[in-house]
Specification:
Four copies of one chain form a homotetramer. By secondary structure, the first copy, chain A, is α/β, with parallel strands linked by helices. In chain A, 23% of the residues lie in helices and 22% in strands. In chain A, the strands form four sheets. A nine-stranded mixed β-sheet of chain A has the order 1-16-14-8-10-12-13-4-15, sandwiched between helices. A two-stranded antiparallel sheet of chain A has the order 2-3. Chain A has a two-stranded antiparallel ribbon with strand order 6-7. The termini of chain A are far apart.
Chain lengths: 308, 308, 308, 308
């Protein structure tokens, strides 16, 4: 089924193609200016550091629902190997095979395409198996650090965890922004908490994956209006799943990544951060979240840290 | 050949076993207090961000010299796959196989052992193929952020790049500290620049790997005296290679990781940072360098960022 | 729980250590003489070829029950890549990551140990992460071709598939040998059919894995008496699972691999072969089943073929 | 540069598209009838078995010349792991990552395309990253067993090893056929020995890879005239490399795989076989060489065995 008119109308309103020039490959990351980073630094008061990645292990968040996206297979190539002879210093070394988007990760701008195009109107077939993403590869994202703002939708709605099929609406984001006590500004990275990752942390992997609360088709306009640099949340699918409109699969991915040119983060653990923000009564912080620079990657693992 | 008396004497002087309790698994990372992070934040003035990782690609820094430590094999599992039918949103997905210490990385405390022990006196055989590092796995390092100080030894010595076999001495570090204009303090992360990575950047991979300048056997005491939290540099081998004392292989690894319990970073690209620090006349910054949290990892990739 | 007296008594009776010299690494494969291969060739009448491997794909037989033994992740490194310029010959290339014992495979003699020993009394710690199996690695098995005999236990018992927990007994093997109309002889490879793989072929992967019919603790003596070269069957676990004696796990593995030095095959699809043998009224054939020669492998994939 | 007229003329002469129907996916493998297999069996006299695969190890034949085609990275996931408690049976398990065409392998029919087509006129874009080769995947090759004939070109020319740039001509094949003392017949598998693999066996990996002797552009017609089922040799590149006509890269691949629909084997070790054939004065044998059945594979590892 072709994408419906409704999709194309929203697409037109949030489209950023050409905004930073025809050669641009990083989209809304252009909004992170040095001034924004200075503001981010200014939010640091206590010096608390909160990690936002889930541990990387074979028993990770993937369930097999997404073909080929495997949890880390982490194996040893040496264990206490005395390479230089007996009674010398011994080394242990390991290797991994994993989907680049298997754990806590950023979706790169080349991760999805529609109508034969990726961000900035580039042809989708610029992605190949031998070269991977020739444009907008995840390594282009660079040293991704900015002001982060936690939009704690679950807490703003007075619940521990949003219901299974809940589509996070612009109104939900408004309420979370009010709770945060700060206006989301150009260049900010918004972290949207649904509480869904509690399912994974409780060992309920299938329930974590599907059905899942997530961002509504109406949220890209909210983020576009505020000119955020990136959005991450605590679900496997990022957007509400199954989708709001029958047979319209992954519209939020297409709007965020292709139309706006805005990175999306998934499987971020926002539970500890939620507690810390509530305790300190502030929801803005310096967020350091540079993706591992896989050349041509359509996504990459990240170990994000919020510094308060 | 057993480790010589000279090694054991230094080991005694820098040993931190028990200092943070018998259960401790993170060693000198305990020195990064919230106060240290606040001081790190205070160094941010311009908001410049400098990435320190080398790109992850098959043509990476590994040459085959270290058995089993392979450069990333980055492959596609889907390219513009219309999973939900024709004319729908299409996805591209990728996977990787790599040595955890193949690119820009942290050595975890379990990466080396000697005399049957790892950091804090734990038995080396607590590392297994099925469980990997049961103690001091790299995931324990957590959200590694602190004040970073660039010790630009090459620049302090008035050269672009240290000679091949140059062992960086405590005197070299003194000179670089003086150039930096700041005292290295407890909890800091020291970045030691030799310029050696220019060889890799110029395509001379074999020359980059070996022979290499690097830290001398005498440097662990210098770092121990200042109580730094971690040290990284811009070489493949970290310490001078071949070693200073014949048949005494990897003594600095053993002193740093096993005796002090101090993380080591390798293959960090400090070239751009060197230019920025010289230009701004300041060598301290907030350094964000959380390792990817591989459970039981003896090391992990990191995409470090210096924020000035 | 240490291994019980009953195990040790059987072990004594089937032990082959030293039988082919202290340096031997291949155990009962020594029994495949050129005369045996000539007899195998003599069984070929119609020229029918029956494949016995299950296809290698991500949706393979592994369920995650055995940690780290992953189904093949098969990815593309190039798709129609015109490496030499436009309108030239294009290539497609692929790569795989998999457990060596994930699909249809041979267990090598180093796959299990007990009491610190592997086959021929060699120390279990001769297996390391950096060198893998220094002795009895699967590459030593060489060009594994012999006379194969199908022991169709399911058919001999007049059933399509043995019940879940059925332990195949010596009496079952006697009945299958009678059905086969040939005596199992020294150097033969016995293929024991339970029908269990029908569960996998029907998409019931969990049911295939566990609980499973399989060889009883009493069968090693039967195979030892006939001096077979190897045994394979159509289950994931080879032996009955859960085991016959509480807390005595994998005794058949230990008897076959460690004591006798006899290769075991698992996940072999014997369904088509069962039909062909019944149709032709003969159960002996030339079996070609050389393992992929992974140096130091504790097992290896195999694509066996029966030629009738 | 588009393919020259000379190529297209040969292509016309050897083309097999439609010969076995529009639905055919295996090309010349159709020529292996049961009668051919019976004839193969009839060649077995002594019962000698000769393995033809090179061992699979990290120090394999690949040099990095072919991007993404990595030698096996073979790692341990468990070493003597007592999964069921102390003093129980312990297991060792391993995993591998490798290019499917890294060692001794078959090129599948989907391995190359030209002018947008693969064998039997199917569109090249039927190969995708998510499904791999939808047509003519290597798993379709099935239980590949036939009469093998060694065409020992090096020996027929009275040399140990063909010179570097030697293109094996039809006349060379004629001479080798005469030495073999048997006519190459429909359904046979021809093994063409150049001796080049001696370079790899001597540790000269770069010299083995390039420049290499190999099959000439004129050989596909020779094989087509005899209707062989498949051809393998003892080089990395199969055809002479660099190519005979400037800028005409991989024409033999295109003729064999795309036009004829004939599998090609590479990196086969024919040294021992050469000695055995010369000694026994006969060059035909039963060849068992079923590829590992990777679903959709554009090639696959094989552990071939010649049985004499």
């Amino acid at each position: 089924m072709p994408l419906p008119a409704e999709f194309h109308e929203i697409a037109k309103r949030v489209n950023n193609w050409g905004r930073w020039g025809a050669a641009d490959e990083i989209g809304t990351l252009n909004l992170i200016t040095e001034a924004v980073v200075r503001e981010a630094a200014a939010t640091i008061r206590t010096g608390r550091r909160v990690p936002l990645a889930v541990p990387l292990r074979q028993d990770g968040v993937q369930t097999g629902m997404i073909p080929g996206r495997i949890n880390p297979l982490h194996t040893m190539v040496a264990v206490n190997f005395e390479m230089f002879g007996p009674d010398t210093v011994a080394t242990s070394d390991d290797a991994v095979t994993m989907g680049l988007q298997a754990g806590t990760h950023w979706d790169g701008l080349a991760h999805v395409s529609h109508s034969g195009r990726i961000y900035n109107g580039r042809p989708a077939d610029s992605i190949t198996s031998h070269e991977r993403a020739a444009f907008s590869g995840i390594e282009k994202a660079g040293p991704l650090v900015s002001r982060g703002v936690l939009l704690d939708v679950a807490r703003a709605r007075g619940t521990e965890r949003l219901p299974e099929g809940h589509a996070v609406t612009p109104e939900d984001l408004d309420a979370a922004e009010e709770l945060a006590g700060t206006t989301v500004r150009p260049g900010d990275i918004a972290l949207v908490r649904t509480g869904q990752i509690q399912r994974y942390l409780a060992g309920e992997k299938e329930a974590y994956a599907f059905p899942s609360p997530g961002l509504s088709l109406r949220t890209p306009e909210w983020f576009h209006a505020r000119d955020v640099a990136a959005v991450a949340n605590d679900t496997l699918t990022f957007e509400v799943f199954p989708p709001e409109i029958e047979d319209l699969w992954m519209p939020v991915h297409a709007l965020d990544l292709v139309e706006m040119g805005m990175l999306q983060g998934q499987n971020w653990n926002l539970e500890e951060l939620s507690g810390v923000c509530a305790e300190e009564g502030r929801y803005a912080f310096l967020l350091s979240a540079p993706p591992e620079p896989f050349v041509g990657g359509t996504g990459a693992p990240v170990a994000p840290v919020a510094i308060l």
